[in-house]
């Protein structure tokens, strides 16, 4: 690993000051000093194509968002205990992108906090505590949410009120994925009942991101949603990764499944880097919670974050970024299919808008995950100036999730670099 002396010193300083729980990406860590659009620039001025960042979803340092933040932070930065129009302008514009049944939005600062709040609301509404998740889910890091985020690592224990259901990976499932998932949810409900636990919610990332980016088929959630409703529980769509137009055809991932959740949680791309998240809720679901508990979250929904979030929605609209995600995403997927045709190691490619997965296998017949090659590909692409990461239970799925301003030319670069990384075996 050829780190500069300065970066070696930073790595040592991080360990000394920040302690052992932080991780850097890549065998050769990166040190960026500037970002613009789809590009990140390191200390040497080298440009890296960011094909991984869905926080800077409308592009790094988008001028319209930067200006909205600058203007608001220089005018007033205060909280939800005073009247202010901006939070309402934003809330109305956001709610207009969601089904009419979801009539309220409550703000938080991180995706974890949004899911934590959704959990409390689900418990209050249902009187239950049971939570059903997918096998390899990640929903966040608060104490309550870490108890249903199995990918956090060995130090985290799943709650005794949590049940896991295998996510419906079409590439690895025989038969009907909808029926398999529904059966899994029904079995989880039965097991909760057997242990005297009343179900509160089924929560899924609507693209099953950490379970491996399961974009196909669509419309398989209805049976599972009916099952949780019959059991008196709620259905929560975690849109922290799929949301805000990324899937191209729809603004929200759950819309690909033709279901309307009881709650939707939002985060990452919402403020293009400014910390803002939220829970969108059916009004009847939050009614008793709201009457019995006050909600004040110091930084959440502050005027600066709302200005950023409003600017993000404006950019998505003005620049036609959903259409771009759809068009460039389809173009990228075609390119990835070409890669699959040239390299035996690619077992499957799939995608929805600008969210794509390339599954790396030891051989196509057994479909055995090749974790080691996957990691080498990611590190080689980084050496060639393209950033992605890995997901899935076998750590063998290339996770491709560029900013929504990604162009066809960027997609060509991406495909070339991936081709080379796979060829250099
Ligand atoms: N839900 C999902 C699906 C996520 O991917 C993440 C973050 N990776 C979270 C929740 C938690 O968000 P945050 O890191 O903002 O707390």
TrEMBL record:
This is 4-aminobutyrate aminotransferase. Keywords: Aminotransferase, Pyridoxal phosphate, Transferase. Transmembrane segments: none annotated. InterPro entries: Aminotrans_3, Aminotrans_3_PPA_site, PyrdxlP-dep_Trfase, PyrdxlP-dep_Trfase_major, PyrdxlP-dep_Trfase_small. PROSITE patterns: AA_TRANSFER_CLASS_3. GO terms for molecular function: transaminase activity. Belongs to the class-III pyridoxal-phosphate-dependent aminotransferase family. Its cofactor is pyridoxal 5'-phosphate. Pfam families: Aminotran_3. The keyword Cell inner membrane does not apply. The lineage of its organism: Bacteria, Pseudomonadati, Pseudomonadota, Alphaproteobacteria, Hyphomicrobiales.
């Amino acid at each position: 690993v050829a780190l500069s002396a300065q970066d070696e010193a930073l790595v040592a300083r991080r360990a000394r000051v920040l302690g052992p729980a932080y991780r850097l990406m890549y065998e050769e860590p990166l040190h960026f000093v500037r970002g613009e659009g789809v590009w990140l620039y390191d200390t040497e001025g080298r440009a890296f194509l960011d094909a991984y960042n869905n926080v800077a979803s409308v592009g790094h340092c988008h001028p319209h968002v930067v200006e909205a933040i600058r203007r608001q932070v220089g005018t007033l930065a205060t909280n939800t205990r005073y009247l202010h129009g901006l939070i309402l302008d934003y809330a109305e514009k956001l709610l207009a992108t969601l089904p009419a049944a979801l009539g309220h939005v409550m703000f938080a600062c991180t995706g974890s906090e949004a899911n934590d709040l959704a959990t409390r609301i689900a418990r209050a509404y249902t009187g239950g505590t049971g939570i059903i998740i997918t096998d390899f889910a990640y929903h966040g890091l608060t104490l309550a949410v870490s108890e249903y985020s199995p990918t956090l690592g060995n130090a985290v224990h799943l709650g005794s009120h949590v049940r896991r259901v295998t996510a419906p990976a079409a590439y690895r499932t025989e038969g009907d994925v909808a029926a398999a998932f529904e059966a899994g949810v029904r079995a989880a409900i039965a097991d909760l009942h057997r242990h005297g636990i009343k179900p509160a919610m089924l929560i899924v990332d609507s693209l099953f991101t950490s379970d491996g980016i399961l974009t196909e088929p669509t419309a398989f959630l209805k049976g599972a949603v009916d099952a949780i409703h019959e059991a008196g529980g709620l259905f929560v769509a975690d849109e922290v990764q799929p949301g805000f137009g990324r899937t191209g055809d729809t603004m929200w991932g759950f819309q690909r499944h033709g279901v309307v959740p009881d709650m939707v949680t939002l985060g990452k791309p919402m403020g293009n880097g400014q910390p803002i998240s939220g829970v969108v809720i059916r009004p009847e679901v939050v009614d008793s919670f709201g009457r019995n508990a006050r909600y004040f979250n110091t930084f959440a929904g502050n005027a600066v974050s709302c200005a950023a979030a409003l600017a993000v929605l404006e950019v998505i609209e003005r620049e036609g970024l959903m259409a771009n995600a759809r068009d460039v995403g389809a173009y990228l997927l075609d390119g990835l299919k070409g890669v699959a045709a040239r390299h035996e190691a690619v077992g499957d490619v799939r995608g929805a808008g600008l969210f794509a997965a390339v599954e790396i296998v030891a051989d196509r017949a057994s479909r055995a995950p090749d974790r080691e090659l996957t990691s080498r590909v990611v590190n080689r692409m980084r050496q060639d100036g393209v950033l992605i990461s890995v997901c899935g239970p076998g750590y063998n799925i290339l996770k491709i999730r560029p900013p929504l301003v990604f162009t066809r030319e960027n997609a060509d670069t991406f495909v070339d670099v991936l081709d080379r990384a796979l060829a250099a075996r």
